[in-house]
Amino acid sequence: MKRQSGFTLLEMLAALTLMAICSSVLLVAFGQSARSLLQVAHSDRLSHAAVSVMDQEASGPLAAGVRSGQLDGIDWQLRIALQPTRIGQPHLFRLDLTVSEGPRHASFSTLKLRAAGAGL
């Protein structure tokens, strides 16, 4: 009798099952990666808007208070507070910026120093 070589039906089913499981794992990993990239893109958009607002609003005279506005569909609110200093010392301001776009929010803070006697 001639011996035939090849795969049995059971071996083929086992190979297909293993391939399906591996493919499922890879698809889940690619999906999570795509979601992560989208979150990073939104975060970058908020960060760039924050830098623009801080540069624009903090370049001129500063006064304690709240400012708000919108930049390319991103809402922002800037709180400026004068920090206590000694008489004759430069004025120190704390700037707290909140930017939001839909359900996403980000907060940023910095300190700015202005010479005493100059326009605040």
What is shown here, in short?
The chain has one helix and four strands; from the N terminus they run H-E-E-E-E. It has 120 residues and is an alpha+beta fold. Strand 2 and strand 3 form a beta hairpin.
CATH fold-level topology of the largest domain: N-terminal domain of TfIIb
Across the major sheet, the strand order is: 1-2-3-4
Shape from CA axes?
A: rod-shaped
> How much strand?
25-35%
Overall domain count: 2
Largest sheet: 4 strands, antiparallel
Using the 3D structure, state the CATH architecture of the largest domain.
Single Sheet
Keywords: Membrane, Methylation, Transmembrane, Transmembrane helix
Pfam family, one: N_methyl
Main location: membrane
Protein name: General secretion pathway protein GspI
How would you characterize this protein structure?
By secondary structure, this protein is an alpha+beta fold. The protein has two domains: 8-60; 62-119, N-terminal domain of TfIIb, CATH 2.20.25. Helices cover 42% and strands 32% of the residues. The protein is built from one helix and four strands, in the order αββββ. It has one helix spanning 9-58, and strands at residues 65-71, 74-83, 91-101, 104-114. Strands 1-2-3-4 form a four-stranded antiparallel beta sheet. A hairpin with a 7-residue loop joins β2 and β3. It starts with 8 loop residues before the first helix and ends in a 6-residue tail after the last strand. The model has no long low-confidence stretch (mean pLDDT 87). Its main location: membrane. This is General secretion pathway protein GspI. Pfam families: N_methyl. Keywords: Membrane, Methylation, Transmembrane, Transmembrane helix. InterPro entries: N_methyl_site, T2SS_protein-GspH.
